[in-house]
UniProtKB/TrEMBL annotation:
<keyword id="KW-1133">Transmembrane helix</keyword>
<keyword id="KW-0472">Membrane</keyword>
<protein>
    <recommendedName>
        <fullName>Peroxisomal membrane protein</fullName>
    </recommendedName>
</protein>
<dbReference type="InterPro" id="IPR007248">
    <property type="entry name" value="Mpv17_PMP22"/>
</dbReference>
<comment type="similarity">
    <text>Belongs to the peroxisomal membrane protein PXMP2/4 family.</text>
</comment>
<feature type="transmembrane region" description="Helical">
    <location>
        <begin position="151"/>
        <end position="172"/>
    </location>
</feature>
<dbReference type="Pfam" id="PF04117">
    <property type="entry name" value="Mpv17_PMP22"/>
</dbReference>
<keyword id="KW-0812">Transmembrane</keyword>
Amino acid sequence: MRLLRRQLKSIWTGLDRRALAKDVATAGALGCVGDFICQGAVEQRETIDWRRFVSVGSFEAIYIGGFFHFLCQAFPPAVCAVGRALEASSARSGVGAALQVEGSSAHALGCSLADNVHDGSLMIPSYFVGVGLMQGDALDATLGNLRREWLASYLAGCSFWIPVMWLNFRVVPAPYRVRVMAVSNTCWSVIIDFLAHRSRGDVT
């Protein structure tokens, strides 16, 4: 645990502000692209809801580009820590050792599953509430929308993000993972954007 704490602390102390700025800009721009596609091509709206457009882009910049910049770096040391704990048990020593080999299929799967837990518990609720409030919805309305659409969003997220993030942690160098994730998130933002707005009457 001491090693894990040191590794997590180093993520903050070794902050690369230029990389963070690039991640924020990339995620925000691609979030806007995703909402534009969702409104124009999927929902076939005659006019773009610009407040919604800005809300989605702002959320993606802050959450995916900002918060996830740090969280993405935390997954590998956390998975290695789980591997060390499992290795202490002789019955699971093989699994534990495999989880500690960064870049391996097992380690990448561990990071992908950790991200999946984060998606269901934090990202999806944050998206519904954050975007809802920024576009002017009442808090009780955003929470009601989240309750209606959480399961569909989570199941869609599992089928999309588990293989995408496995590939991301398997083959993409660490400095580029958030930007690769942001590119993939352009597709995902269309999906979750649609799910988050269909119950509001935005989607006919």
